[in-house]
Design goal:
The protein is mainly α. It has one domain. The strands form two sheets. The chain has a two-stranded antiparallel sheet. A two-stranded antiparallel ribbon has the order 3-4. A hairpin with a 7-residue loop joins strand 3 and strand 4. Helix 2 crosses helix 9, helix 3 packs across helix 5 and helix 7 packs across helix 8. The longest helix is centred in the first third of the chain and has 33 residues. The radius of gyration is 24 Å and the shape is globular. The N and C termini lie far apart (70 Å).
């Protein structure tokens, strides 16, 4: 029995409630590390496997004017990528003596090319011109559970697509955010959710305009569209509005919203709590990068890659007129394996795991 003057030892004993909660940046960085490990595994399997080679464009010749355009669009895209890399990544890095949030996000967006061929995971939904520089695709034989036939024949245009996701993607966030700031200055009472909604609508419009123009050049195509939701439906340059909404609006919008909701310290809701970690500055940079990496890839996977599987399997018939260097032997559907995917056409399944 304790006296009234003796301290209550139970009150002095630390309880689990005293422990500090794990900051969000830790969970996001763990997710990012897992995503990065998966990407490295798939790409390594592809590079070391039998599908790492350029795709044969087939018998159809490429018109001279289109050949010239395809050559220069790859060169110009690379040049724009170098300029953007300097402005967004390298120059701020030199000035701040560390990678900035916007610089890290640029690098993350450079890696989104990995998810690009996933549009064809269940059914061929996107085509690329195989006269562009390519080494096939990290799909059939590399990506677990791949379903659509001859997926490795998608000629992923590496010189175009890697930087392309930053040019018609991440870099669009900056003018949109600048416009939203102007709106905020003129209408201080406007809420951030309303600003985010306006930003998403603008991004949908920008992506729709840019991609609709680019599709007419024959660099790539979206043959697997639902025609009621498609601009120029039935033409080889048709543009599914679902692409503008789910990529332009939601995928780019997810990063735009991340930047819009930064706090007074410049932290996003993904890297919040980084300053509480008792680790070195270099380690903090890695934790922050992995957290942003996880957010960028997971957000695209959830708002674009997954929904595209439904749209791909519900698409209307392919438009007629695609040459061999666009089809690239990926239309092997149907009973006789000689049709493109569409209503009433049997979708072939692998006899066993393609790995």
């Amino acid at each position: 029995m304790t006296s009234a003057t003796e301290p209550n030892l139970k009150l002095l004993t630390p309880t689990p409630l005293d422990a500090k909660p794990t900051p969000p940046v830790i969970y996001w960085s763990r997710a990012g590390a897992l995503v990065l490990a998966f990407i490295v595994y798939v790409l390594a399997t592809w590079i070391s496997g039998p599908h790492f080679h350029s795709v044969d464009p087939g018998p159809d010749p490429l018109p001279a004017l289109q050949a010239t355009f395809i050559y220069w669009v790859q060169i110009v895209t690379l040049m724009l990528g170098v300029v953007a890399m300097w402005l967004v990544v390298i120059r701020p890095w030199i000035r701040e003596k560390q990678l900035t949030t916007t610089g890290m996000l640029y690098i993350c967006w450079l890696t989104l090319f990995f998810q690009d061929p996933m549009m064809n995971y269940t059914s061929a939904h996107v085509l690329y011109n195989s006269y562009m520089f390519n080494m096939g695709t990290w799909t059939l034989g590399s990506t677990p559970g791949w379903t659509s036939p001859n997926g490795s024949n998608l000629p992923e245009p590496l010189l175009l697509i890697v930087v392309g996701y930053t040019i018609i993607g991440y870099c669009l966030c900056f003018p949109v955010l600048a416009l939203l700031n102007k709106i905020k200055e003129k209408r201080p009472a406007i809420s951030k959710p309303m600003l985010a909604t306006i930003g998403v609508l603008i991004l949908i419009l920008l992506d729709t305009v840019f991609e609709s123009l680019l599709l007419r050049t024959g660099v790539y195509a979206y043959p697997g569209g639902i025609r009621e939701l498609t601009l120029f439906a039935g033409e080889t340059y048709q543009f599914p509005l679902t692409e503008g909404i789910f990529y332009g609006g939601f995928t780019i919008g997810a990063t735009m919203i991340l930047l819009l909701y930064r706090d007074d310290k410049g932290q996003t809701f993904v890297d919040r709590g980084l300053d509480t970690l008792k680790i070195s500055r270099f380690q903090k940079q890695w934790v922050k990068f992995l957290a942003l990496f996880g957010y960028v890839h997971i957000s695209m996977f959830l708002v674009f890659t997954v929904p595209m599987q439904w749209f791909a399997t519900h698409s209307d018939p392919y438009p007629e007129g695609y040459p061999s260097y666009m089809i690239n032997d990926m239309c092997v559907y149907g009973v006789n394996r000689d049709q493109c995917p569409g209503p009433g056409v049997m979708m072939p399944r692998p006899e066993n795991n393609p790995l």
